[in-house]
Structure prediction request, 345 residues.
Amino acid sequence: MKQPFSFLWQWLPRPGRLVRYFLLLLLILALIAAGGAAWVFSDLPDITPLKKSGTTLTIEVPDWQGKMHPFQVGPKNSDWAPLETIPAELKWAVIVAEDAGFYQHDGIDVQAIKEALKYDLKRKRFDRGASTITQQLAKNLFLSRDKSIVRKLRELVLALRMEEELTKGRILELYLNVVELGPLVYGVGAGARYHFNIPVQFLVPSESAFLAAMLPGPRVAYNPKTKPVKVRKRAAHLLDLLLVRKILTADEIADAIADLERLGGEPQLLVAPLAPIASDESGAEVDDAEREVDGQDADPSAAPMDGASVAAATSVDVVPAEQGAVDDVPPNVDADEGKENPERQ
Prediction:
């Protein structure tokens, strides 16, 4: 008896041919993927110059009207704050606020990503990010504000490279000197001068926590001028976390929380221009420049998201005399948490 639709079978390839066609398709897809990866990652910047503490990188940062301005990241910036001059309380307040697992991960916090996905799926919108301090730094120094998948992939690769090339102390130093803390106020040195009119090394614990509390969104969500109570509340929460980490004692925390009441409102320095850049040296980013998503305030309990966003680097200036690598990490870690502060070369 003749098979029904037998005329169709003669057009189908034999089993051997079918396997060959499938393997050929896989090969084509692999070549396309390899070509795409080569295109995405072909022009990533060199991380090596950042290993030298004398390096000054010129990038561009936005003001609150969206206009871009050249900004120097390094010793040539008059507000540059070497890591050893930054109070331990400020270092730790930023870490617990932005990336609690900073000393455990290698640039990408997989657990934080899982928690962020669960949180976003539950709320059915992208409210929580999972960018580490290293990822934020990669974006701040080298990438645009674009929220594309390509930009995120480049950010991940740069973060992994940074963790390979730089010490944790160097990464933290660079990050603390590019975070946005006010209108054209970038870095904790400029932030201390703008909000308290003092050098960063003289910040007391309440002021350190107050600065760190602004990082989710100094423009709107955590603007200390318009929402001082909200910033103080978040700062008090950060101080409580410093007690858990044994960075401060209970009495020191109580004093700092009481001192928060004097902070907020009008800044001490009404105008804080960016550090001037000589004409012969001027080179001419919650995933937003602040953590407000679609105009809504950030959830203060949310996991760390991206901090200040800055445009691609335009020039690098390395001081000839090497000043030594920065290997400092925040002190006062309990013995049981020893692996939190690894000595990384």
About this structure: The chain has two domains: 14-43, 47-340. The beta strands are 55-62, 68-73, 180-182, 185-186, 311-318.
